[in-house]
Structures are given as structure tokens and as C-alpha cells.
Amino acid sequence: GAFDIAGTLVGYAERSELLPRDDVSAGDALIGVASSGPHTNGYSFLRKLFDWVPLDVTPPGFDRPLGDALLEPHRSYLHVLSAAIDSGKVKALAHITGGGLPENLPRALPDGVDAEIELGSWPRGPLFELIAELATGVEVHELHRMLNMGVGMVLIVAEADVASVQASIAEQTWVIGRLVGGEPGHRRVHLL
Do the beta carbons of residue 91 and residue 158 sit within 8 Å? Predict the structure, then answer.
């Protein structure tokens, strides 16, 4: 009685413009861009979490029924981030899907560089607030590994370029953390 739907986006870029760049380093800032919903991950968990709730109910703080919020299509970030990318100030991007911040952000980091994420530095939105409220017994790190928790894309930029990059994005963004030195051979995300 269930089915999965899969989709993909394909693009192209000049080799000289591919990300991540070689100058990603400790001291760089992390800018978060809001997700449109759970993206492509966590639906088994979400089905279990909400199996007792009618999906046509509109919870307090929501602008639509729960089922519509859970099934919000995954958005493309291209039009949102084009001006920032074209500025040449974006060093790397991390698309936050399966694995959340802890597993997706390291793919954009060089060896020996870690990321520190300041939990609470972005508004999670009503859906992720409700999930956090109902997911009692699920550790914070695990919740952020299963779901994007409201951050769908992370930009890595030099600290000096944060204001201009944020100004080039036509929606609200948040500085959610920074890159720090780590152990050689590792790329870790620390949720603070």
C-alpha cells in the first residue's frame, strides 16, 4: 500500500567553477539556507512519529495540513543561490539531505577541518519544531542526522564575505557556525 518516488536534478558547470574550492579553511563561516521540508530523508521515521495523527489536521503554528507540510516538494536552490555563486565568494556548498548536517557537511570540507554548528542559530520552522517536540527519547545529534531540521543548504564563505553573500540571497539566511581546525585524516561536524 505504499510506494517511493525518486527524482533527480542534473546540471553542468565549467570545470574551473566547480565547488568546493581549494581554499576552504578554518575560520570560514557557514551560512544556512532554509529547507522546504524534510527533503529526501527521514520518511520512515516520520511515518512512525506521526502514525497516530490525521494528516489533514492543521497543527497550531502551521499554515497548512500536516500531510501537506510533510510532503512539500524538495526545492531547487539554483535560483536562490545563483547571485551568491556568481559573486565568486562561495567556497563550497553542502546540500543537506540524508544524513543531515553531520554527514553531508563533511563532504565539502578538506582533510583536517571540522565544522562547528550552533544549534538554535536558525529558526527550525513549525514542522521541525513539532518533530523535535514529539521525538522524545531521540538524541539531538541523531535527530540532526536523520533530518535536515530546517537547513537545506549550507554555504561556506570567508568570514569577511558573509554580509555580501547574505545580501545577494533574496531570502533570509543565517550564520549557523564556522570551520575550525581538526585532526588530520578527519572531517567532523560538532553540534554545539
Answer: yes
Dig out the grid coordinates for 84 from the structure: 551568491
Q: Are β-strands 189-191 and 113-117 bridged in parallel, bridged antiparallel, or unpaired?
A: parallel
pLDDT per position as a tens digit, 174-190: 999 999 998 888 888 89
Q: What is the pLDDT of residues 132-146, one digit of tens each?
A: 888 888 888 888 888
The C-alpha cell that represents 121 in the structure block: 542559530
For the record, the C-alpha cell of 168 comes out as 545577494
Report strand pairing: 189-191 vs 173-181.
unpaired
> DSSP state, 119?
T
**Nine-digit cell string for 103:** 554527514
Query: CA 166, 9, 191, 47: dihedral to nearest 10 degrees?
Result: 130
Q: Is the dihedral of CA 103, 107, 113, 115 positive or negative?
A: negative
What pTM was estimated for this model as a whole? 0.86
Q: Please choose, from the candidates 161, 179, 28, 159, the residue with its C-alpha nearest in 3D space to the C-alpha of residue 106.
A: 179
